[in-house]
Every structure is written in C-alpha cells, then in structure tokens.
C-alpha cells in the first residue's frame, strides 16, 4: 500500500512529523515538493508532499484522501528539500519550518507578477544589417550583442529613443519576450553605463582558482581573506560575470542591505536588470515578483541579506558570502540557522564554488582553511598599495586620572578637530543607542528597571521616555525614586543621542548625522543619511555597529571608537573575536581614498590581546592567540555547542522542567565526552514576564543527541528555545 507523506505548512511544533494520506488516482503522479490541501480534524490545511512510503500492510487507522493539488509543478526542487532536511536535522527545527524558508508568504491564491517586453538576440542577429548611417541603431545592436538582451525600459533609460528601439526590435535575429518586471530599487538612476575595471595582478592571482572551479563546475569553498579596501567586491563582480555567462544564477549575500548599499550599487551599475535585490522592507508582491524572475531566469543575480540564500534557483553557479564573519548571518528569531552553513550546503548540492569573504574571517572558517577544508585566498594589501590607517589606543583610566571625565579623550577631541579643520570626514562608533544607558537614584542606588524584563531601562531623549530594548516597553521618566521617593534621579552612561549632543556642543561647526536602530526603523531615512554622508553633506557620521559595515567613503580620513570594551564584556565565548572584528572593521573605514587614515580607540582594557592586535590590523596574530584559548577551553571549532533556554512564567515550574531536561539528556548522551552544564540562570533572567534558565551542551559530535532531542518530548516542550552553534 502506497501512502503520501505530508508536512503541515504552518508553524506548530506538535505537527513537526509527517502525516500519512492517500493520493487519489485522479491527480496522477504528483511529485514531492508539491503543495496540497489536506483534511486535518474538522478543517483543511495546506501541506507539502515530501514523498511516498510503501506499507507492507494497511495501517490500523483509516487514511484520508488528499483533497486538492495546489501547484501545477513542484514548488520545492529535490535540492531545496534536501537542504531543508539538513537544516531540520542540524539546527533542530521542524522540516516544515525549514521548507517555509524557501517560500515567500505563498498563499492559495495564484499570483501573476507584472511583465515587461525584452529584446533578445539570436545567432542570426548582426550589426551589419544596419546601415552605417544609422549610428544609433548600430550602437543599440552592439549593446544587445554584448549583453544578449535587455528590457525596453532599460534601453530607454540608457538614452535610446522609442523609434530606434522599434526599428531594432523588427530586425532579423531579434525576438520579443515577455518577462517578469524587475522590482525597482533606489539605485535605478545609476543605470547609465557598464563598469568594467581590470583586476590588479594580486586580484587576478586570487581570481584564477575561482575561475578554474567555475570552468570545471566544481564545488570548492574559498576563504577570501582580504584587508579592508583590498578590492574584494571587484572579485565578486568578476566571478558573477563568469557565472551569468554560463547561464547560471549567482547568489550574493551581504550582512544588511540597508548598510551595504555600495556593493548593491556596484552590482546594479554593472548588471542592470540581471539583479534582483532582497531585503526585509519589500512588500509581499515585490518579493513574489523577484522570486518569479529568478525561477523563470529573467534575472540571474540575487543580492540580499541572509534570507536570500533560500532563493528558488535550480541552477546556482556561484554563492558569495560577503563579510562572512558577521553575526547578522545568524538568524536568532523563531527558526535559528546560520546562512553561511546554508550557502555551503547549497553550493555542494549544485557543484559550484562558494566564496567566503572578509577582512576578519570567523575563527572557525580560518581554522577550516588552515586544515585544508577550505582554500585560503589572501589579499594582504589595499588596492593601489594604500596604507592601512594609523591606530592610537587610549586608556580611559589614564584620562580620568588626569581629570578628563568627558566621553571624548584628549586624543579623540584632537582628531575630531583636525578632521574638521582639514575639511575631511569622520566616523564615530558608540555601540549603545539611546541617550543614557541607565537611570539611577543617587540616594538609595535604585536603578529603574523594566517591569517585564530583568534589564535597566534606557533613557531616550526623543520622546523624553525610558525604553526597554528587549520588549520595547516605554514609560515617562520618573520624577521621584519608586523606592525611596527621592527626587535625586541621575542619568548614567552615554548613548548615541547623548554623544550627538556632546559633539554639537563642543564642535559647533560640525555637520553631524546619527545612524542607529532608532533611525534605521525608517529605511528611507537611513538610506538618505548614508547617501548624504557619501556626498559630504555631513562631516561626522555617529552610530552603533551599523557604521562599521561595508562602507567605502573616500573622504573619511578618521575613525573614533568610544567604547571598545562594550562587546568584550558580553558573557559569550566569542567576545574577543567580536571585539577584534568590530575594531578592525570600523578602523578599516578610514583612509580608503588618497589621504592617509587615523583611528583613535578608547578603552578601559588596553592590554587585551583583541585590542592590541586590532591596532596593528594583525588578524593572524589575533587568530593564533584565540585558537589556543578555544582549544584549551573546548569551544568551537574544537567542540560543537547547543544552547537551550527554558522559559516559564512560574519559577518553580520552570526549575522542574529544566531539571527534567538535564536529567533526561544525561541518561541519553551515553558514554561520550558530551558535557551538559545547567540549568543555570540565563544572562537575562526575565524577558517579557517569562523567567529563563539556560542549559549548555558541548561535545565533539552531538548528532546522536540531536536526533534524540528531535524525537523526544523535549523538542515539543512549550517555552523551550534551542540554539545550535550559538555565536
């Protein structure tokens, strides 16, 4: 007896295993990956057919029929289904959740994206069929032969008249196709000319093994370690050009679209309508449109943040993970996965190269390259031999001893004034948003805490309120202490809003822009700020980690980092790595033009090796120290990790559940080197009125324990969060 195995297409932990149904003969041979409508209880649900099973004898219960087939052809390819299965098994979330990552909020209603006309050349098309007197027609013909085809909208944007386009479209060897229209981006005005910058000798040497892998359709993982400003983007463009010449799809991942618009601009300038851009601000219609363009091969290049790795392409020829070290590639909500791993799995399935690029590669990636698992490619110098910026470390304890209690050290103030005097630009990093980090009573020491989370409220000058950065609870600033009724309420610490105020007070002529999470809630405002800073409408760009990523401003000669210890003090094993990355990446924004760069880093811990090595831009030196510490303490890449957080509104119930999980895991881990720590109080013991206890699991191979967790009561325990490979 043959039965269909169906996964319910909605997030429900209790329905994480496939259900059995009968496939009526009238539907014919329906392939796995097709969406179907099934009865479930008294309702009907959308499901995904994942395969069939032959039973030797009928089951004890009555099987119900599949009601309707919802797709004319499978939405999920075999590769997508295999990748979803790997996600399901490795990261411990349901197969249905994994499959949904490859969709774009698809509904049961059909969707037809807007279309546009394309002029596409065939082998019969030649320039010679146009008279030499028809210069514009010949110019258009040459362009079409170069690119193979283009939309009428793009040709109009390039300055060709409607009459010229019509005359060429009627020529021998031109076919007119209706293709899905490319979603507009904010960079359309740049589609004026192709960019074709020759590679330097150093870049060419690095590109050759990538080209060889693409020529032989070989899956290889390349770790491209290039210092900031070494020209990694140009290599991505060259490899992408090769990819689409093979009629394959290139996936380009960037940490955050809104903060890396320069790399997007480079791709759109170079490839025009071949590019579709994905980010969280697109409407469902725009996402559907872009997805359909890729599925139908109207476009061959997708650029986006981590979710773009799930592009529904059947012929991937290249995957690039730019700034591969960046923690934003790790999805932390609902389903937890790392886009870098997904990129590697998809590259392996498609037999194509994967390029992991960074000036500060993740310790795990660099370790794999040193072990020969990845091929290491290096660009140790900036393009055109521009010098790396000079970095000065300031010990803030010394500043206090000399009576300077300002947020700016003397060296920082001098660098700001020098930059303004020379009419250059500066980026200042402060990894705290808001005005003050906490509010405290000076009489009794009471800190104003969030009523729903175990964290201090942050004062935001905009709106004159206290705000929790975990649950977004906000309330007016108290006039008296809630504990002792004192009126001596004081603001402590400095956030980006307060530093902006200090800058305006001390440097009155400076034109200052602030970029933090409060600003980037408005995507257009954030884009406008970056654009205006790039055109030198501002002298200083102040912000959180957002100012450290991917920016290439030629007039930025100075960088200031106000609190180098903010990441170093986070209680995670990767704190030193994150600190080195942040300091090195931010410092690398300075001196990328024809003027030398200067950096001032303020810290209370100047002897920490992550800070010392960042001063010299010495990644290898940092790696050598960090990898020894990781090995001694049993952290990745030497051991795998699973971090669990158990949540409940009642502490006694929470403790009982957490202790039961630990006891069960201890029994089923077997005689292995697996260590189970906990339960212990989570770093934040209460969020959104839910108490939290943590459990940490470490071992050289956790695959068997993962399989047990997925098939046991633990997986469906309400309030349990599972994070495989925490960062």
TrEMBL record:
Catalytic activity, as annotated: Couples ATP hydrolysis with the unwinding of duplex DNA by translocating in the 3'-5' direction; ATP + H2O = ADP + phosphate + H(+)
UniProt EC number: 5.6.2.4
Cofactor note: Binds 2 zinc ions per subunit.
UniProt-annotated binding residues for Zn(2+) 2: 450, 453, 468, 471
Matches recorded under SUPFAM superfamilies: P-loop containing nucleoside triphosphate hydrolases
UniProt-listed InterPro entries: DEAD/DEAH_box_helicase_dom (IPR011545), Helicase_ATP-bd (IPR014001), Helicase_C-like (IPR001650), P-loop_NTPase (IPR027417), PriA (IPR005259), PriA_3primeBD (IPR041222), PriA_3primeBD_sf (IPR042115), PriA_C (IPR041236)
Domain named Helicase C-terminal: residues: 476-628
Keyword Isomerase: yes
Cofactor: Zn(2+)
Residue numbers binding Zn(2+) 1: 441, 444, 481, 484
Residue ranges of every copy of the Helicase ATP-binding domain listed in the record: 213-379
Top enzyme class: isomerase
Assigned keywords, A-Z: ATP-binding, DNA replication, DNA-binding, Helicase, Hydrolase, Isomerase, Metal-binding, Nucleotide-binding, Primosome, Zinc
SMART domains for this protein: DEXDc (SM00487), HELICc (SM00490)
Subunit structure and binding partners: Component of the replication restart primosome.
NCBIfam families: priA
Family: Belongs to the helicase family. PriA subfamily.
PANTHER family for the chain: PRIMOSOMAL PROTEIN N
Its job: Initiates the restart of stalled replication forks, which reloads the replicative helicase on sites other than the origin of replication. Recognizes and binds to abandoned replication forks and remodels them to uncover a helicase loading site. Promotes assembly of the primosome at these replication forks.
Name used for this protein in its record: Replication restart protein PriA
């Amino acid at each position: 007896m043959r039965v269909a195995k169906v996964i319910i297409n909605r997030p429900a932990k209790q329905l994480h295993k496939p259900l059995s149904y009968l496939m009526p003969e009238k539907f014919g041979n329906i392939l796995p990956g097709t969406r179907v409508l099934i009865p479930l209880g008294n309702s009907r649900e959308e499901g995904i057919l994942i395969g069939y099973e032959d039973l030797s004898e009928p089951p004890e219960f009555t099987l119900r029929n599949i009601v309707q087939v919802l797709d004319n052809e499978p939405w999920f390819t075999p590769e997508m289904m295999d990748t979803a299965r790997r996600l399901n098994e490795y990261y411990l979330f349901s197969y249905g959740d994994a499959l949904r990552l490859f969709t774009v909020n698809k509904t049961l209603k059909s969707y037809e994206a807007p279309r546009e006309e394309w002029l596409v050349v065939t082998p019969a098309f030649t320039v010679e069929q146009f008279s030499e007197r028809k210069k514009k027609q010949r110019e258009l013909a040459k362009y079409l032969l170069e690119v193979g085809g283009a939309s009428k909208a793009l040709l109009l944007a390039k300055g060709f008249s409607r009459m010229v386009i019509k005359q060429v479209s009627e020529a021998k060897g031109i076919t007119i196709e209706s293709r899905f229209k490319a979603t507009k981006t904010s960079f359309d005005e740049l589609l004026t000319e192709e960019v074709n910058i020759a590679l330097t000798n150093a870049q060419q040497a690095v590109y050759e093994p990538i080209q060889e892998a693409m020529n032989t359709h070989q899956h290889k993982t390349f770790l491209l370690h290039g210092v900031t400003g070494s020209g990694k983007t140009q290599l991505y463009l060259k490899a992408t050009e090769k990819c689409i010449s093979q009629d394959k799809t290139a996936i380009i991942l960037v940490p955050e679209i809104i903060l890396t618009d320069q790399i997007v601009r480079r791709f759109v300038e170079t490839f025009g309508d071949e590019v579709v851009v994905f980010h969280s601000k697109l409407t469902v219609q725009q996402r559907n449109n872009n997805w359909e363009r890729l599925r139908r091969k109207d476009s061959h290049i997708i650029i986006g943040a981590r979710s773009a790795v799930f592009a529904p392409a059947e012929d991937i020829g290249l995957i690039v993970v730019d700034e591969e070290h960046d923690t934003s590639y790790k999805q932390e909500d609902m389903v937890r996965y790392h886009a870098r791993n997904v990129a590697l799995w998809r590259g392996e399935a498609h037999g194509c190269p994967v390029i992991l690029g960074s000036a500060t590669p993740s310790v795990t990636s660099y370790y794999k390259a040193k072990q020969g698992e990845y091929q290491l490619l290096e660009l140790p110098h900036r393009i055109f031999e521009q010098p790396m910026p000079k970095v000065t470390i300031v010990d803030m304890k010394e500043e206090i001893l000399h009576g300077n209690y300002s947020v700016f050290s003397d060296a920082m103030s001098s660098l700001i004034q020098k930059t303004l005097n020379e009419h250059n630009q500066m980026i200042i990093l402060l990894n705290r948003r808001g005005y003050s980090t906490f509010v405290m009573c000076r009489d009794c020491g009471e800190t104003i805490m969030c009523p729903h989370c175990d964290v201090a409220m942050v004062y935001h000058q905009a709106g004159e309120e206290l705000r929790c950065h975990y649950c977004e609870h906000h309330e007016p600033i108290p006039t008296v202490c809630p504990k002792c009724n004192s009126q001596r309420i004081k603001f402590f610490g400095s956030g980006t809003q307060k530093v902006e105020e200090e800058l305006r007070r001390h440097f009155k002529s400076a034109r200052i822009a602030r970029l933090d999470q409060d600003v980037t809630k408005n995507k257009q405002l954030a884009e406008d700020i970056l654009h205006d800073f790039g055109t030198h409408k501002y002298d200083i760009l102040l912000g959180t980690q957002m100012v450290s990523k991917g920016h290439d401003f030629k007039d930025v000669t100075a960088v200031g980092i106000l609190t180098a210890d903010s990441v170093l003090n986070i209680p995670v094993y990767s704190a030193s790595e994150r600190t080195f990355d942040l300091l090195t990446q931010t410092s690398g924004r300075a001196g990328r033009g024809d003027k030398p760069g200067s950096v001032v880093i303020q810290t209370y811990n100047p002897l920490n090796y992550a800070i010392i090595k960042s001063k010299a831009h010495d990644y290898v030196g940092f790696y050598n120290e960090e990898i020894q510490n990781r090995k001694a303490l049993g952290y990745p890449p030497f051991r795998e990790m699973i971090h669990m957080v158990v949540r409940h509104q009642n502490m006694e119930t929470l403790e009982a559940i957490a202790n039961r999980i630990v006891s069960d895991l201890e029994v089923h881990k077997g005689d292995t080197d697996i260590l189970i720590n906990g339960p212990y109080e989570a770093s934040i013991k209460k969020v959104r009125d839910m108490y939290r206890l943590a459990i940490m699991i470490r071992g050289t191979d956790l695959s068997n324990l993962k399989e047990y967790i997925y098939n046991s009561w633990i997986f469906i325990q309400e309030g349990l969060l599972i994070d495989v490979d925490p960062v």
